Amino acid sequence: MKNFNEDDEINENELKNLIMMNYTLSLEREIEKLKNDAKKNNEKLNEGQELNKKILQFIYGLFHELKTPLNVIFSASQVMSLCTEYKNGGTLEKQSQYLKIIKQNCYRLMRLINNLQDLSKLDSGFAKLELHNRNIVSFVEDITLSLIPYAKGKGINLIFDTNEEEKIMALDYNKIERIILNLLSNAIKFTPEKGTICIGVEDKDDNVYISVKDTGIGIPEDKFKFIFEKFKQCDKSPINGKAGSGIGLYLVKCFAEMHGGKVSVKSAVGQGSTFTVKLPVKVIEEKFNKMIYSENMDEQLSIEFSDICPKI
């Protein structure tokens, strides 16, 4: 058997130290490499985010460029429409029909552009709330009353039902209006003739619940998981054979969440659907009571319902 002397023990300890030092240096080099890789990845990520921001800004600007000629076409069609109202004749009647087609498709394009514009704002972080105190009950009722002609035109009974008389709360007028119009547009799209749509408002536990209940075709349960996702579509409506863009319900969800609320759905195939928007009741301090109204309610309704109710 070999006997180790003192020098051998020193050499063995030195060897262990050298191995440890080598391991430590290798580990430090690996850590430094990982740090450098992480730094480069972060730089690439920042560059990607900056590029994405520029693209979104470009798209946002493009929406304005699209709206400009569209508004010119729409304005021209309105002027031509006014001219035909004071004259008779087969030629002018046909011209009037073509003008209605132009206006309806202008509304469709404006609806798509508005939705994409809102989507761009949300994705780029530019979407903001403009809150004002408003009676949510009368607000929803006014919108419902303005929609009755559209519902009647489709042979659908539209009802506003609530036990509440007044509930003042802070809301973004345009965004809550878009929520209600989107939900009602879907309800009309998927509800057959002689069906019923009921809009309700309930004040409960410091929250306001806005519900849109229809007697339409209903939604399969397997669609629930993605119904509020961006660009996700359910099947085409058997009522009019059309599917949406997959943006409307996503915007409903986002606008509700911006108010600190949420949206939910209950449905069964052949038994209709109920969409409920839950909004927390908050009141802000305003220096003066500034009432915000839609620029043109009739025009806003024509835009939102252009694909199902061409009321021009």
UniProtKB/TrEMBL annotation:
Q: What class of enzyme is it?
A: transferase
Any one Pfam family match given in the protein's UniProt record, by short name = HisKA
Matching entries from InterPro entries are given as: HATPase_C_sf, HATPase_dom, His_kinase_dom, HisK_dim/P_dom, HisK_dim/P_sf, Sensor_HK_Regulatory, Sig_transdc_His_kin-like_C
Record key words, sorted: ATP-binding, Coiled coil, Kinase, Nucleotide-binding, Phosphoprotein, Transferase, Two-component regulatory system
Query: What are the coiled-coil residue ranges?
Result: 24-51
Please tell me whether the keyword Nucleus is annotated for this protein.
no
Q: Which SMART domains does its entry note?
A: HATPase_c, HisKA
Quickly give the catalysed reaction. ATP + protein L-histidine = ADP + protein N-phospho-L-histidine
A single Gene Ontology MF term assigned here is: ATP binding
Its EC number is 2.7.13.3
Locate the Histidine kinase domain: which residues?
A: 61-283
Q: Which domain of life is it from?
A: Bacteria
Please give the CDD domains that the UniProt record associates with this protein. HisKA
Recorded hits in PANTHER family, A to Z, give: SENSOR HISTIDINE KINASE RCSC, TWO-COMPONENT HISTIDINE KINASE
Q: What is this protein called?
A: histidine kinase
